[in-house]
Amino acid sequence: MKLVTWNIQWCLGCDGRVDPARIVDEARAFADFDVLCLQEVACNFPALKGSRGEDQFALIAGLLPGYTAVRGIAVDNAGPDGMRRTFGNMILSRLPVLQVLRLQLPWPADPAVPSMPRLLLEAMVEAPFGLLRVMTTHLEYYSARQRAAQVEALRARHAEACAHALGGGVLDESQGPFHSQPQTVSAVLCGDFNQRPTDPLQACLTAEFGGGVPALDDVWKQLHPALEQPPTTGVHDRVQWPQAFACDFICATRDLRDRLRAVAVDGRSQASDHQPMMVELA
Question: Residue 30: enclosing H or E segment and its boundaries?
Answer without folding.
Answer: helix 20-30
